[in-house]
Every structure is written in structure tokens, then in C-alpha cells.
Amino acid sequence: MLSQQILNGLVSGSVYALFSLGFTLIFGVQKLLNFAHGATFMAGAFIAYYCTISGLPFVMAIGFSMLATGLIAILIDLIAFRTLRKRGNAEFPALVSSIGVDLILVSIAQQVSNTQVLNFPFGTFPIQFYDVFGLRISLLQIVILATVAVLVAALIFYLKKTTFGRQVRAVATNERAAALLGVNAQSVYLQTFFIAGALAGLAGVLIGLLFNSIQFMMGEPYMLRAFVVVVIGGLGSVQGAIVASLLLGVTQSLAVAYLPSGLTDAIIFGLLFLVLLVRPNGLFGDINAVAGGTRQ
Amino acid sequence: MIQMYYAYQPIIDFFLLSVGFGYSQQIALRAGVFSIGTAGFAALGSYCVAILATKTGVPIFLTVILGTVLAAAVGGLLALPLARLRGAFQAIATLAFVQIILSLLLYGEGFTGGALGIVGIPREVNTWILLIMVGLIMYVMWNIGRSGMGRVFNALRQEESVASSLGVNIGKYHIIAFIISGAIAGLFGGLQSLYTFQIEPHNYGFHFIVNMLTIVILGGRTTLLGPIMGALIMAILPEIARPLAENRQAVNGVILILVITFLPNGVGDEIVFWFRRRKQARQQQKRASDKEGNDAVTSS
């Protein structure tokens, strides 16, 4: 029973990781909090749903929705962030403009879906269960764990080993210095936004499958969790975000299973509070990194 | 005039409450504290008032004072551990505080009514009381801005290391900012529960936080006019966009993006800055012309 709960926690934690990675990537590179990330996630689930309904094979629907959410994220950067960034001191203004984008996307989704909860048609994904060492694991869970593992590995490889990754990290450290060395910061921003959007879109599809429900407000609770994950892991730290997501997923499923149900949130956020008191920069945060956000 | 007042009374009251909460949010940001605890303080204040007013015979004005004191005290206590954190980490820690308060309110069903909240709170607050309270808070904020404390807050916001090198006790002023923010939010939380006669934990959730941040950032983070302009825009926008029916939210979003892109300091701050710049330019011109006159006199 305990190990079953841990397994379920790992599965939901790995989806949190997918969602939070984009969020932390944007924060790490731009030092901006993107409140529209939850709406991007929701858009991913919606696009995949309408593609499946209109008869596209499911795998293609997923690919198409990742592409589309990547492009949506690029649009968000162009519309809401670029002009503010050019002027400098964008932390607070960017908060409001991304809230604006969030309102627009949520309102579109609300009208498209007529405020209803959508479900993927039965049989979109084969329902199969396996018994592994006494654990009951579904095909979907296996696929989710494998997909997330592969994507996370690819992302880390991309950031650490390729020229693009080095450019991203250079811009994250110091945009001006990177620009002087010939890095095109604007293109780095667009690429990080595309990756973040595509990951969020995939997370949306996976969550939509896992709980078999898609609705226009589904992004909000995940935004709240992404904040928790990203801060516990250390803002801008990819490894930290992954570890923190898995921790959050497992803690949550254990708290739901073994503790009074009304107290789950109190316990999770109490833990978050404690982590911050012991490690003010998160578990993997850089001591020297100044997490901006209060400068005028 | 009276007709117009009756037609728009709910909007006016909503606007006044938002201005109050906006000042609570602003004073924290103004001191360089990225706190979003206003929602939690407001919840404490409103539940304190609601519980005392419905279950005990404590006089109403006393319940409001108790709610304010409670929220201020919790703000002070919260500030002790949070003084170590900065920026987004501080924001998330206060978000955690809000979530803990909300889930405790949901959990303590016997005491707080759980998800249904508390109903039947006596309706003792009207527009005039709200107006007087907003005026009072504005007076307090104005005085803070003019005093040494306001200057310390400005210094902390702009460059903390400079402030500390000039002998400012950062921790102390962060605690003061938290206490003021808590007191204002607690006061208006209490007023809100006496105004709406029904409260539930959901009122103080993520939406509340996002709204308050929007009001302050859209209006302006440093001037007295800021939260007023922000609350005004947020109160009037839905009314203007009413004919658009379902597209209302989307239009709100578009307007938020446009306003903040062209006035990144916030509407209220930009107005105040514009007047200040004009005044300065005039003084400079005057000084220059005075000097010219003097030169002419001496040279002749």
C-alpha cells in the first residue's frame, strides 16, 4: 500500500516536473514570473482534445498541441514581455501583463468549451494494468514516467552540452555580457519560451489523460504547485525543480492517503515554509544568486 | 447625484474595499518586501470579526479593532522568520502562509463553518464608514510617506545594501512594514465581513492575491494615488466591457497588457511623476530666468 502510494506520487510528481521546468527555465533566464504558464498548460490539453475529436491520431494530436503551445508561448513573449524587458525593471509590470494574457487565454477556452468539463473519448489511450512486484501500474503511468524521464534527460543534455544551452546559460548569467560576445539574446528568449510552452502543453495533455478531465480553469492549481516546486528546488535550477516536483508528488499522495484530508494543503505549505526557513534559497539554489523581484 | 449613487453603490463600495486592501499590499511592496500575505491577513481579520459578531456579544466596533490587532500581530510574527528571505522567495513564503490560513479555515468546520463559511453577520458597514476608513488610511499612509519611515522604506526598496550601510536596521523596518500591512488588511477584512454579511475561505484565495497585485502594480507601487487608480480601473473595467458579454475577460486582459506596457510604473505613479517633472522644470526655468535678470542688473 505504501509503495503503491509512492508510485502514484512519483507519476503525478513527474508531470509537475514537466510543468515546472518551463516555469523555472523562464525565471532562470529572464528573472520574470510568467503567470500565463498555467494557461499555456490548459491550452495544451484543449488543443490535443480538439485534435483527437476531429479524428487525428492521438500521437499526432500530442505533437501538434506541443507545437501549438510552443508557438503560444512565443506569442506571449512577443506581446507581454518584450517591450517591458527592453525598458528594464520588468519584474512587476511583467506580472500584470502575463496575468492579462492568462485572462485572454482562459476566456477563449471558456467560450470554446462552453464552460464545460471535457473528457478524452473512451479508448483514446489503451487502459491496461500490469502487476509489478505486487504494484498495480497502468500503461499510462509507465508511458508518463518514461516520457518525462526522456524529455528531462534531453533538456539537461541540451542545456549543458550544446551550444544553444551554453548560450542560454550565458544569457541567464548576464544578458549584456552575452550580447557583447555575440549571443543573440532575443532568439535565446524565444527558444526558451518555445521549450517552456511545449513542455507545459505536454503536461496539460498528460494531466488531462491521467484525471480524464479538461476544463478552462485547470491551470490555476498547477500554477500554485509550480511556485512551490520552483522555490523549493531553487529558482532557475533545473535539477532542483525535478527533485522538488517528485518530492511534492510523493508528499501529496502520502498526505492524502494517511492524514486527515482537509489538512493536505496545510501540511504541504507548512513543509514549504520550513524548507524556506532552513534554506532561504531553496534546496539547490545558488547562495549568491539574488532572486530579484523587489527592486523598483 | 443621489440616483447615480444608488445605481453604482455596489461598485463604489467594492472600489473602496479594494483601495483599502491595495494600501495593505502597497506598503509591503513599498518597503521592498515582496509580500502577498494581504489575503491571509484579510482572512484573519474578517473571520475574527465574523466569529465574534455572530457567536459572542462583543460590541461591533470592538470586534473590528480586535481583528485589526490580530492581523497586525500575526504580521509581526510572520515577519520574524521572513526577514531572512528576499524577492520571489519571500513572495512564495507569504503565499504558503495564505494557503495554510485558508486550509485551516476549511478544516476547522465547527469554528469557521468550513467551505460554506459564516453567514448572518450583522450588516453594520455602509459606504460612508468605508469612505471614512479609506480616508483615515490615506492620512496614515501620507504621513508615513512624509516621515523618516517613508524615506527608509524608499531606500530599502531601491537599494538595500546602501540603506544598511547608512545604518538602517533592515529587519526592524521589514517587521514594521509587515505589521502595517497586516493591520490595514485586517481592518478592511473586518469591514468587508460586516459589509457582505457572508464570508467563505474561497474569497481570500488565489484570485484575491492576483487582484491585489494587479491593483497595486497597475495603479502604482510608490504613490498615494497608486492603489486608487488601480482599484478604479479594476472596478470600472468590467462595467465598460459589459456590452461585450462573454468577451469581457479577454478585453480586460488586453487592456491590462496595453496599460502596463505603455505605463510600466502604473497609472497613478506616472501621473504623479508627470506633475513632479513639470514642477521641477518650472522651478528650473524660474531659476534660470531669475539668474538672467540678476546678470542683466549687474552687467549694466
Structural topology:
The complex is a heterodimer of chains A (296) and B (300).
Chain A: H1 2-30, H2 37-53, H3 58-87, H4 91-113, E1 129-132, E2 135-138, H5 139-161, H6 163-173, H7 175-180, H8 185-210, H9 219-233, H10 238-258, H11 264-278
Helix pairs in contact in A: 1-5, 1-8, 1-9, 1-10, 2-3, 2-4, 2-8, 2-9, 3-4, 3-8, 5-6, 6-8, 9-10, 10-11
Chain B: H1 2-30, H2 38-55, H3 60-82, H4 87-107, H5 109-112, E1 118-119, H6 127-146, H7 148-158, H8 160-165, H9 170-196, E2 198-199, H10 206-219, H11 225-240, H12 248-262, H13 267-299
Antiparallel strand pairs in B: 1-2
Helix pairs in contact in B: 1-6, 1-9, 1-10, 1-11, 2-3, 2-4, 2-9, 3-9, 6-7, 10-11, 11-13
Helical percentage of chain A: over 70%
Quaternary state of the chains: heterodimer
State the shape of chain A: globular
Helix proportion range of chain B: over 70%
Q: Quote the distance from N terminus to C terminus of chain B.
A: 62 Å
Q: What is the percentage of strand-forming residues of chain A?
A: under 5%
Number of DSSP strand runs of chain B: 2
Kindly report the spatial arrangement of strands forming the biggest sheet of chain B. Answer: 1-2
Order of helices and strands of chain A: HHHHEEHHHHHHH
Please tell me what the overall shape of chain B is: globular
Order of helices and strands of chain B: HHHHHEHHHHEHHHH
Give the beta-strand count of chain A.
2
- DSSP helix count of chain B? 13
Sheet-strand content of chain B, in percent, reads under 5%
Across the major sheet of chain A, the strand order is: 1-2
Class by helix and strand content of chain B? mainly alpha
